[in-house]
Specification:
Blueprint lengths: L1 H33 L4 E8 L1 E3 L4 E2 L5 E4 H13 L5 E8 L4 H16 L3 E11 L1 H6 L4 E4 L4 E3 L11 H7 L23 H26 L3 H7 L4 E3 H7 L4 E2 L2 H12 L6 E4 L5 H6 L13 E4 L9 E4 L11
Parallel strand pairs: 1-5, 1-11, 2-4, 5-6, 6-7, 6-8, 7-10
Antiparallel strand pairs: 3-4, 8-9, 12-13
């Protein structure tokens, strides 16, 4: 009898989950149905920027994937009712290749007449700042951390650990440098020069993006590009951002640049899973300009223990 009761409770809970999922999907469909002209899209760039798709883990950590963001930007391009989009940034950066891919898609979007505005929340450094430089305008929270213009490469040496564990590594290679960066030994001077040349090349690419995006001379950018981090207010004084404000200000700027009259309709373009919605811990797509709340955040050490993030109102339960 007890087993039947437990089974019934489990089935009931599952049915409740399914019913809620259907309701949420209907709400999302309704959002699309009532959506008219003068839309502003919002894309969430949170966590480390990587190639591929965005993701999250059970601890609430998130990554922003270039493929996911590119798909979201293409939705903006395909929507005639959406003349502008805001990138809500809360990222320490990440992969240079992923940042470049997103930046290139932003350039294509702008070439078609769409407005792209960056809003910097707690942090928008390194690769996130690379992306921001490709947008029409940057709005930064006065206390945000941004900049960190530079490139870093880390190579680990576990030689002593392997020796302690009695692990031997046998290498058979086709060329002298095929095992560059192997963890069973230290790198040699020639390899250091090769790695440094790679870092320098990516750094020069980063400098060029900042120079073009911020309308600065190369030498002027290099004076600011030693890897240091700036507050939003410092960045404004140095010409690295355009305006100080919050998400509401970013929406007003985007609406003005896009020629939108009246209150714009805000469309969240970052997918939110049913489980995120049900349990209330939104790890992706948690951007909206009003009804602000505070949630715990597990992320990069540069972030404070709590992050003020806007509440989701019209998220879409979908996958890319």
């Amino acid at each position: 009898m007890r087993r039947k009761i437990i089974t019934g409770v489990i089935i009931g809970i599952l049915m409740l989950f399914i019913a809620l999922a259907v309701i949420l999907q209907e709400d999302a469909a309704l959002d699309v149905a009532i959506s008219a002209k003068n839309e502003i899209g919002v894309i969430d760039i949170t966590g480390v920027i990587v190639s591929g798709n965005s993701g999250s883990d059970f601890m609430g950590g998130t990554t922003t994937g270039s493929a996911s963001v590119i798909n979201q930007l293409r939705k903006v391009r395909e929507n005639p009712n959406m003349p502008a989009v805001i990138l809500y940034m809360n990222s320490p950066g990440g992969s240079p290749a992923a940042s470049l891919e997103i930046g290139n898609e932003i350039k294509r979007l702008r070439e078609e007449g769409k407005i792209v505005v960056t809003y910097m929340a707690d942090i928008a450094t390194s690769g996130a700042y690379w992306i921001a430089c490709e947008t029409d305008l940057i709005v930064a929270n006065p206390s945000t951390m941004t900049g960190s213009i530079g490139v870093i490469m880390q190579i680990f040496n576990f030689e002593e650990l392997y020796d302690m564990l009695g692990i031997d590594v046998n290498i058979i290679k086709s060329g002298e440098h095929k095992d560059m960066g192997a963890t069973h030994r230290d790198i040699i001077e020639e390899e250091k020069r090769i790695f440094q040349s790679m870092v320098n090349d990516i750094y020069e690419q980063f400098i060029e993006v900042v120079s073009k995006g911020r309308n600065m001379e190369i030498e002027q950018v290099k004076k600011l590009a030693d890897g240091r981090v700036y507050t939003g207010r410092q960045a404004l004084e140095l010409g690295l951002v355009d305006k100080l404000g919050d998400m509401r200000d970013a929406i007003e700027v985007a609406a003005d640049l896009a020629g939108i009259e009246g209150a714009p309709y805000i469309v969240n373009l970052t997918p939110v899973s049913f489980w995120d919605e049900f349990f209330g811990h939104i790890s992706l797509g948690n951007v909206f300009p009003y009804d602000i709340y505070v949630e715990n955040y597990i992320g990069p050490m540069l972030l404070p223990p709590h992050v003020v993030k806007p509440h989701v109102v019209n998220n879409k339960s979908q996958s890319l």
